[in-house]
UniProtKB/TrEMBL annotation, chain A:
The chain crosses the membrane at residues 12-30. NCBIfam families: ATP_synt_b, PRK14471.1. It comes from the Bacteria. GO terms for cellular component: endomembrane system; plasma membrane; proton-transporting ATP synthase complex. GO terms for molecular function: proton-transporting ATP synthase activity, rotational mechanism; proton-transporting ATPase activity, rotational mechanism. F-type ATPases have 2 components, F(1) - the catalytic core - and F(0) - the membrane proton channel. F(1) has five subunits: alpha(3), beta(3), gamma(1), delta(1), epsilon(1). F(0) has four main subunits: a(1), b(2) and c(10-14). The alpha and beta chains form an alternating ring which encloses part of the gamma chain. F(1) is attached to F(0) by a central stalk formed by the gamma and epsilon chains, while a peripheral stalk is formed by the delta and b chains. F-type ATPases have 2 components, F(1) - the catalytic core - and F(0) - the membrane proton channel. F(1) has five subunits: alpha(3), beta(3), gamma(1), delta(1), epsilon(1). F(0) has three main subunits: a(1), b(2) and c(10-14). The alpha and beta chains form an alternating ring which encloses part of the gamma chain. F(1) is attached to F(0) by a central stalk formed by the gamma and epsilon chains, while a peripheral stalk is formed by the delta and b chains. It is a single-pass membrane protein. Keywords: ATP synthesis, Cell membrane, CF(0), Coiled coil, Hydrogen ion transport, Ion transport, Membrane, Transmembrane, Transmembrane helix, Transport. PANTHER family: ATP SYNTHASE SUBUNIT B, ATP SYNTHASE SUBUNIT B', CHLOROPLASTIC. InterPro entries: ATP_synth_B-like_membr_sf, ATP_synth_b/b'su_bac/chlpt, ATP_synth_F0_bsu_bac, ATP_synthase_B_chain. Belongs to the ATPase B chain family. This is ATP synthase subunit b.
UniProtKB/TrEMBL annotation, chain B:
It is found in: Cell membrane; Membrane. The lineage of its organism: Bacteria, Pseudomonadati, Bacteroidota, Flavobacteriia, Flavobacteriales. Belongs to the ATPase A chain family. It comes from Mesonia algae. This is ATP synthase subunit a. Keywords: ATP synthesis, Cell membrane, CF(0), Hydrogen ion transport, Ion transport, Membrane, Transmembrane, Transmembrane helix, Transport. GO terms for cellular component: plasma membrane; proton-transporting ATP synthase complex. The chain crosses the membrane at residues 132-150, 191-211, 217-237, 249-271, 277-301, 313-344.
Length: 164, 350
C-alpha cells in the first residue's frame, strides 16, 4: 500500500529541509531568544533577591535604630538621674556651707558686739570716773551751803554731761 | 457568527467541490481519499482536468543519464500515464503520481500482476512535490515568526507584546514543561534547538494541513520516518556509557538473562522512534480520512440531505483536529525529550 511505504524523494527533502531549518533556527532564533529569556529571568531573580536583601537590611536598620533609640533613652534617663543627684548634692552642700558661714558670721558678730560692749563699758567707766572727778572738783571748789544747792549743782552738772 | 461558520466550512467546501467533479464520473471514495491524503507533483486547489487550478511544481528526476527537471504542468494534469513528456531523449509518464521512465518503444506503462512495471523503470524521484512545497511554506513561516521574535530579543530586554509574546510563551512551554522535566536542568540546553524546531515544525505543518487545499505533510510516512530518525540519531549519539551499559549488558541481573535483555533493549531502542513516526502519521492521516469519509458519504448516498448531518460532523472533527494538531506536536516532542532524557540520564551507582 502506498500509504505506509516511505518515498525516498520526500524523505530526502524532509531530512534536508529539517536540517537546514534546525541550523537556521538554532543559530538565528533559538539562541538569541533563549539567551535573552534566560537573561531576563536572571535579572528578575536578581531584582527579587536584592529586594529581599533590601527588605532584610531595612529590617536590621530599623532594629538597630530602635536599639540605638532605646540606648539613648536609657542614657538620657541615667543622665537626668545623675543631674538630679548632683543638684540635690549641690543644694545640700550649699545649705550646709551657708549654715556654717552664717554661724561663723553670727559668732564673729557676737564677738564684735561683746568687744564693743566691753569697750563701751570701759569708756563709760573712764567717763564716769572723770565725771566723778570733775564733779568732785567742782563740788569741792564751790562751797555748798545747803542740801538744796548740792542737788542743784548735781543736776546742773548732769545737764552739762548730757550736753556733752 | 455566520461568517465564522462559513469560514470554518471553507475547507470542507473545497473538498466538496472536487468531489462533485469526481462524482460526475463514477465516484470512488477510496480513490478520492487517497488522492487527498497522498502526495502529488502539482499543488491542486480546485476544478478538474485542464480547467482545474493547479500550482505547477518542479519535477526533479535522477535518471541513468543524469538529472532531468521540468514543471509538473507538462503532464497536463494527467495521472493515468497517458501524457508522455519527452526530455533529453527520455520519455516520462505520471501514473498515479508516480513517475515512470518508459522504454524506447513503449507509449504507455504496463504492469504485471504484482504491480511491477513491465516496459518502464522508476527513476529516483527528487521532485519538489506538494508535500515538499508545503514543508517549505512551514519553514518560511517559522523563519518569519521566530526571526521577528529573535529581533525583538536582540533589541530589548523586556517581554515582547502580541504575537511575539504568544510565541515566547510557547517557547517557554517547550523549555519548562517538556525539556526541563524530561531531560533535567543540567543537560536540557543542548537539546532545546531540536525540541523547539521539531515542536513548531510539526504543529505549524499540522495546522497548515487543515487549511483548504493544503498538503498532508505530517500525515505522510516519509516525513515522520525522517523526523523519527532524528530522534533515534540523537539518542544514539548522546547516549552516555551508563545508558549503553543498561541497554547492552544490564547490571544486577543473572548473566544468562543479560543477552536476552540486550536483544529486548536494542529492539526497544528502535521501536521507540518507530512508535513516534507511526503515531504522528496515523493520527494526522486518520483525521483527514475521517473528514473526507464524512463528506464522501454525501456522494456515496447521492443525496444532498446527508450534507446536513455529515457537514456538521466534519466541522466538529475539523475543530477536533485543531486540538490534535497541537497534541501530536506536543506528544512527539515530549516523547523525544523523554527518550533523550533516558539516554543522557546519570544513574546513581548502587
Amino acid at each position: 500500500m502506498d500509504l505506509i511505504k516511505p518515498e525516498f524523494g520526500l524523505f530526502f527533502w524532509q531530512t534536508i529541509v529539517f536540517l537546514v531549518l534546525l541550523f537556521l533556527m538554532a543559530k538565528f532564533a533559538w539562541k538569541p531568544i533563549l539567551n535573552s529569556v534566560k537573561d531576563r529571568e536572571d535579572s528578575i531573580n536578581d531584582a527579587l533577591a536584592s529586594a529581599e536583601n533590601a527588605r532584610l537590611e531595612m529590617k536590621n536598620l530599623k532594629a538597630n535604630n530602635e536599639k540605638l533609640l532605646k540606648e539613648a533613652r536609657e542614657e538620657r534617663d541615667i543622665m537626668i538621674k545623675e543631674a538630679r543627684q548632683i543638684k540635690e548634692k549641690m543644694i545640700a552642700d550649699a545649705s550646709g556651707e551657708a549654715e556654717i558661714k552664717a554661724k561663723s558670721m553670727i559668732a564673729s558678730a557676737q564677738e564684735a558686739i561683746k568687744m564693743e560692749k566691753q569697750a563701751a563699758l570701759n569708756e563709760i567707766k573712764t567717763q564716769v570716773a572723770s565725771l566723778s572727778i570733775e564733779i568732785a572738783e567742782k563740788v569741792v571748789s564751790k562751797e555748798l551751803t545747803s542740801k538744796e544747792d548740792h542737788m542743784k549743782l548735781v543736776d546742773s552738772m548732769l545737764d552739762d554731761v548730757k550736753l556733752n | 457568527m455566520i461568517l465564522t461558520i462559513a469560514f470554518a466550512m471553507l475547507p470542507l467546501m473545497s473538498f466538496a467541490k472536487k468531489d462533485i467533479a469526481e462524482a460526475e464520473e463514477e465516484f470512488n471514495p477510496t480513490d478520492m481519499i487517497m488522492h487527498h491524503i497522498g502526495d502529488s507533483h502539482g499543488w491542486h486547489f480546485f476544478g478538474s482536468g485542464d480547467s482545474s487550478f493547479t500550482l505547477p511544481l518542479p519535477v526533479i528526476l535522477y535518471t541513468d543519464n543524469g538529472l532531468v527537471t521540468f514543471m509538473s504542468s507538462e503532464f497536463h494534469h494527467d495521472t493515468e500515464g497517458h501524457h508522455v513528456v519527452e526530455k533529453n531523449g527520455m520519455r516520462f509518464v505520471n501514473f498515479h503520481e508516480k513517475i515512470y521512465q518508459l522504454e524506447a518503444d513503449a507509449s504507455e506503462v504496463e504492469f504485471d500482476a504484482d504491480h511491477h512495471p513491465l516496459n518502464a523503470e522508476k527513476p529516483l524521484d527528487l521532485s519538489i512535490t506538494k508535500n515538499v512545497a508545503a514543508m517549505l511554506l512551514t519553514v518560511v513561516l517559522m523563519l518569519l515568526f521566530f526571526f521577528s521574535l529573535a529581533k525583538h530579543h536582540k533589541k530589548h530586554a523586556h517581554a515582547p507584546k502580541g504575537l511575539n509574546n504568544a510565541l515566547e510563551a510557547l517557547v517557554l512551554f517547550v523549555r519548562d514543561d517538556i525539556a526541563k522535566p524530561q531531560i533535567g536542568d543540567k543537560k536540557y540546553k543542548k537539546f532545546m534547538p531540536f525540541l523547539l524546531t521539531v515542536f513548531f515544525f510539526i504543529w505549524i505543518t499540522n495546522l497548515l494541513g487543515l487549511l483548504p487545499g493544503a498538503a498532508n505533510v505530517t500525515g505522510n510516512i516519509s516525513v515522520t520516518v525522517s523526523l523519527g530518525l532524528f530522534t533515534l540519531v540523537l539518542i544514539i549519539v548522546n547516549g552516555n556509557s551508563d545508558f549503553w551499559k543498561h541497554t547492552l549488558w544490564m547490571p544486577g541481573i543473572p548473566t544468562f538473562v543479560k543477552p536476552i535483555l540486550a536483544v529486548v533493549e536494542v529492539l526497544g531502542l528502535i521501536i521507540k522512534p518507530v512508535a513516534l513516526m507511526i503515531r504522528l502519521f496515523a493520527n494526522i492521516t486518520a483525521g483527514h480520512i475521517i473528514i473526507l469519509s464524512l463528506l464522501g458519504l454525501i456522494f456515496i448516498l447521492e443525496s444532498a440531505g446527508v450534507a446536513g448531518v455529515s457537514v456538521p460532523f466534519a466541522l466538529f472533527i475539523t475543530v477536533l483536529e485543531l486540538l490534535v494538531a497541537f497534541l501530536q506536536a506536543f506528544i512527539f516532542t515530549m516523547l523525544s525529550a523523554l527518550f533523550i532524557g533516558m539516554a543522557v540520564q546519570e544513574h546513581e551507582h548502587h
